[in-house]
Design brief:
The protein has 10 helices and 6 strands, in the order ααβββααβαααααββα. By secondary structure, it is of the alpha+beta class. A hairpin with a 2-residue loop joins strand 1 and strand 2. It starts with a helix and ends with a helix.
């Protein structure tokens, strides 16, 4: 059962000056077709294989640099990032422990699929699989204008990743995910997120914000600027 009306009421209370504007930039195509099944679970598992996951964080918890990604599962530009710069970032920086990634799932475009995707990913945090599920959903993203993501497809994705579907469903149906969803939306507002995806690169020498599907060169520059001196 969709929680759209429950969550909508929660989010309505957060609407203030500077509220998130649902815009896809730098690579958003919106040309996904109808989604009839989930494909690519093995690839999603392989992408993060051997890397620690805890809740919404991927990578060594003691990594000196954190890249906080604000993303919408229905956002085409977020899909572009997940297929281009994110795998490069993982292979180049996350695997060796220099960077950890944090995914903050929001519904910037205000769509049923975006909301459903955010709630599903938040529920997967309970099994330390938020990154795995978000990457798999991006691989299967449909047309941003349609209600392509159903509860059945979410369950198929969860099962494909080898998670405990019953435990995931209990979390997904619980009120805890709604509370966390509202917290993430508020966090995005506080961070002045205007487009999705937005990446905030934080390190001992400050922070840099990258808007849109930034390429690996932009990430390298930001990490060098805020990371520890070598």
């Amino acid at each position: 059962m969709s929680k759209r009306y429950i969550v909508g009421a929660v989010v309505a209370a957060l609407v203030v000056v500077g509220v998130i504007v649902g815009i896809s930039v730098a690579g958003g195509g919106g040309d996904g077709g109808e989604v009839t099944g989930i494909e690519g679970a093995a690839d999603a598992r392989e992408l993060v294989e051997g890397i620690p996951q805890q809740g919404r964080v991927l990578g060594d918890p003691d990594a000196p640099v954190t890249v906080v990604g604000y993303g919408d599962i229905a956002c085409p530009a977020c899909k572009t990032a997940s297929e281009t710069s994110i795998p490069e970032l993982i292979d180049e920086y996350v695997r060796d422990g220099r960077v950890k990634l944090e995914f903050v799932a929001i519904d910037a475009l205000r769509t049923v699929s975006g909301e459903r995707g955010a709630l599903g990913v938040i529920a997967a945090e309970e099994q330390d699989a938020a990154w795995s599920l978000s990457e798999l959903l991006y691989k299967n993203q449909g047309d941003e204008r349609s209600e392509w993501l159903t509860d059945d497809l979410l369950e198929e994705a969860v099962a494909g990743l080898g998670l405990d579907v019953a435990d995931w469903r209990a979390a997904y149906d619980g009120e805890g995910v709604v509370t966390r969803f509202a917290e993430y939306e508020q966090r995005a507002i506080a961070a002045e997120v205007r487009v999705t995806p937005t990446f905030v690169v934080e390190g001992p020498r400050g922070e840099r914000t990258l808007e849109g599907a930034a390429n690996i060169g932009a990430f390298r520059e930001a990490i060098d600027e805020v990371g520890p001196r070598t």
